[in-house]
Amino acid sequence: MPRPIRACIDLAALRHNFRIARARAGRTRLWAVVKANAYGHGLMNAFQALASLTDGFALLDLDEAERLRAAGWRGPLLLLEGCFEARDLEEAQRLGLGLVVHCAEQLDLLAHARAGPAVDVYLKIDTGMRRLGFPLASAETAILRATALPAVRSLTLMSHFAEADGTGIGAPLAAFARMRDQVCARLGTTLPVSLANSAALLRFPQSHGDWARPGIMLYGATPFPDGSDVPAVDLRPAMTFESRLIAIRDIAAGEAVGYGGSFRAERPLRVGTVACGYADGYPRHAPTGTPVLVAGEVTRLLGRVSMDMLAVDVTEIPSAHMGSRVVLWGAGLPAEQVAVAAGTISYELFCALSPRVRRDVVDADPSST
Ligand SMILES: *Cc1c(COP(=O)(O)O)cnc(C)c1O
Asked: Looking at residues 143-151, what average pLDDT do you find?
């Protein structure tokens, strides 16, 4: 029998969440962001769920794009960090990919492109993240240069806000809009824009533009750190990370649990051992008290997470037995709650899910494609 740990990927939940994004976006088109193996959910699982719904897929790696083309996707694909060298550009042209261009070196690549189909370019502007993108002050020069390149078929202006999930986007959005109006007036044309991630899509309709780029919300988690917006937007977890109890023991007051004895029982406890550890992607830094669902009831993690196991308190769950189902996050226990307890974000939990964990596809509502 295989180890009783798996991640159930719910295609119906992916579709449900995508439809919420669609309803929020109105006429704005949507890139389904499927980078990082669809945030750990499996690229082909996300593709299967969303191919008939989305306008395009946004990702990072050429081989991910290649897999979607091989699976029959003929629609738009966008490489979110663009190309790194000339060879990538040829491959991107062959695959018909849209490219983010965030720096002068990438414009040089396009300027030196050998013959081949012209590409759709998303010119990235830095509105405050200070990570990728042309600074606002040099945006006009970059845009004018890009529009003059024969290898550029279309130009979209793009930015990624640093504070869409926090203090807001008022000032950067205004600065971006000023720059765009100026450049468009000069060019005598309008250029489409793509600005919104999940947080901006949910919070700032004025940022929707022509194409939005939802990621995390498609997987059923809120981009807002405290998780408070989950019920408000009715997202459904697309991943349920689950395992089983493989041992149960009673311990006396004063006894310790796990490596280093970092947890010591203040009273007699019933302790369950779960077949899930940090080698499966459960965060090792999750402290005692992190919520875990055992036999349908919320309880707490005890002591240090091991490589292949962790301990939970089942003192108040008399029905817990060997083989009881344990949900680490997902249906019944939002990943955001686990993330907050562990000092991280749901994004990291999902992406860190180990390749050794089997992904089982479920489709609770197969009729609604
Ligand atoms: C990852 C990413 C997104 C999606 O962000 P979410 O917060 O997951 O919605 C959007 N745009 C860019 C450029 C990204 O890298």
From this structure: 96
Å from CA of 126 to ligand 1 middle: 14
The residue from 39, 124, 219, 259 that is catalytic is 259
Average pLDDT of the residues of the chain: 95
What is the per-residue pLDDT across 57-84, written as a single tens digit (0 to 9) for each?
Answer: 999 999 999 999 999 999 999 999 999 9
CATH superfamily of 239-362: Lyase, Ornithine Decarboxylase; Chain A, domain 1 (2.40.37.10)
Active-site position among 35, 122, 278, 347 = 35
CATH 3.20.20.10 residue spans of the chain: 11-221
Give the closest residue to 132 by CA, choosing from 104, 158, 155, 102: 102
What phi-psi label fits residue 163: left (phi over 0), alpha (psi between -120 and 50 degrees) or beta? alpha
CA 176 to chain centre: 25
The pLDDT value recorded for residue 227 is 54
Q: How far is the CA of 213 from the centre of ligand 1 (A)?
A: 6
CATH assignment, 11-221: 3.20.20.10
